[in-house]
C-alpha cells in the first residue's frame, strides 16, 4: 500500500487546506502560476535541507509566479538559482535540529519568524518522503525522486586546504560524535603532510594545527570545498554538502547510511569513501590510513 503524505497548504488569508498525496504515485500539479509560494521556514538538519528540501522546492518553483524561501541566514546560496526572495531566520542555539524538524522550540516559533511576509501558498517544512530503515531499505516518494539538484560552485574565498575536517560535536545524537582527543590526534598526524581547515558551525570542535573556518556561509564553505582534495568526518551535514560541491569525501558511520552517501544522497556520483568497520567510533590510525590512501 502506498504511503500517505499530508501536505498543509496554508493560504495567506489564514485558511488551511489539507491535501493528501500518495507517495510513489504520479501527482497532478496544481496550476498556481499566478500565486506566490512561501517555502518553509526550514528549521531541520542541514543534510536533510540539502537532499530532502531544496531540490524539491526547485522542482516545483516553475509552477509559481514568485517563490520566497525562508531558512537559516547563510543558506541563501542554495536557493539563489530559482528563488525570487530569500528570507533569513535565526534558530535558537539551544534548539536541536532533527531531520526535517527541530526540538526544543515553542510551537509558535515558526510562525513568528515569517510575520509580515506576503504570500498566497505556503508549504511548511516536512518530510517529502524519504527514510532509510536499519536494514538499508529506503522509503522513497515521487517528490523525493523527482527533485532537481545543481552542482555547487563558488570562488568567494582566496584560500585553500588539502583537507577539510568537520569535527561533529552535536548534542542531539552525541553518541555519534568522535571525541575531541581523537580529532586532535588525527589532525596532529595529518598536519605533518597536509594543510587542514576546520568547517562547521559553532557546534564543531575547535582544533589546533588547523585553520578555523567554522561559522561561515554555505557559499564560502563551498568555495573551500571546491579547492580541497578531501572532506573528512563522521556522517553530518557538511559531508553531504561535499557531494553537491563535487568534492571527494571520507565518512564513517553505521552501515545503514552507506547507500545514502553512495546512491540516494549523491545525485552527481561524487567520489565517497564510506567506512562502517567500526561504526561511529573508528581508531584514529584507521582513519589516518584511509585518508592517506584516498589522497
What is this entry, summarized?
The chain is of the alpha/beta class and 295 residues long. It has helices at residues 46-52, 54-60, 109-112, 142-145, 180-190, 218-227, 237-245, 258-264, 284-294, and strands spanning 4-11, 16-22, 32-39, 64-72, 85-89, 96-98, 101-103, 121-123, 130-132, 138-140, 163-165, 196-198, 211-212, 230-234, 249-252, 272-275. The chain folds into 2 domains: 4-145, no CATH class; 163-294, Rossmann fold (3-Layer(aba) Sandwich).
What does this structure look like?
- Residues 1-28 have low confidence and may be disordered.
- 24% of the residues lie in helices and 25% in strands.
- The chain has 2 domains: 4-145, no CATH class; 163-294, 3-Layer(aba) Sandwich (Rossmann fold), CATH 3.40.50.2000.
- With 295 residues, the chain is α/β, with parallel strands linked by helices.
- α5 links the parallel β11 and β12.
- The chain has 9 helices and 16 strands.
- The strands form 4 sheets. The chain has a 6-stranded mixed sheet with strand order 2-1-8-3-4-5, with no helix packed on it. Strands 13-12-11-14-15-16 form a 6-stranded parallel sheet, with helices on both faces.
- It starts with a strand and ends with a helix.
Amino acid at each position: 500500500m502506498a504511503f500517505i503524505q499530508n501536505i498543509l497548504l496554508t493560504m495567506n488569508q489564514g485558511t488551511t487546506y489539507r491535501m493528501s498525496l500518495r507517495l510513489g504515485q504520479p501527482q497532478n500539479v496544481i496550476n498556481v502560476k499566478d500565486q506566490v509560494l512561501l517555502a518553509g521556514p526550514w528549521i531541520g538538519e542541514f543534510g536533510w535541507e540539502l537532499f530532502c528540501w531544496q531540490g524539491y522546492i526547485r522542482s516545483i518553483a516553475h509552477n509559481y509566479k514568485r517563490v520566497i524561501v525562508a531558512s537559516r541566514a547563510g543558506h541563501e546560496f542554495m536557493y539563489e538559482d530559482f528563488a525570487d526572495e530569500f528570507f533569513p531566520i535565526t534558530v535558537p542555539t539551544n534548539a536541536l535540529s532533527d531531520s526535517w524538524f527541530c526540538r526544543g522550540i515553542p510551537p509558535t516559533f515558526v510562525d513568528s519568524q515569517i510575520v509580515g511576509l506576503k504570500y498566497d501558498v505556503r508549504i511548511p517544512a516536512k518530510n517529502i518522503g524519504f527514510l532509510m530503515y536499519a536494514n538499508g531499505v529506503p522509503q522513497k516518494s515521487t517528490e523525493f525522486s523527482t527533485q532537481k539538484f545543481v552542482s555547487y560552485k563558488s570562488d568567494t574565498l582566496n584560500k585553500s586546504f588539502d583537507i577539510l575536517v568537520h569535527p561533529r560535536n552535536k548534542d542531539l545524537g552525541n553518541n555519534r560524535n568522535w571525541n575531541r582527543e581523537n580529532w586532535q590526534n588525527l589532525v596532529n598526524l595529518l598536519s605533518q603532510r597536509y594543510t587542514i581547515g576546520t568547517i562547521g558551525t559553532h557546534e564543531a570542535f575547535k582544533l589546533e594545527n588547523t585553520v578555523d573556518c567554522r561559522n561561515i556561509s554555505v557559499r564560502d564553505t563551498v568555495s573551500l570545498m571546491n579547492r580541497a582534495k578531501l572532506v573528512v568526518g563522521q556522517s553530518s551535514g557538511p559531508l553531504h554538502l561535499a557531494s553537491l560541491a563535487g568534492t571527494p569525501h571520507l565518512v564513517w558511520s553505521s552501515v545503514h547510511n552507506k547507500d545514502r552517501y553512495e546512491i540516494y544522497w549523491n545525485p552527481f556520483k561524487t567520489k565517497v569513501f564510506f567506512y562502517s568497520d567500526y561504526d561511529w567510533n573508528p581508531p584514529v590510525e584507521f582513519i589516518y590510513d584511509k585518508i592517506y590512501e584516498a589522497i
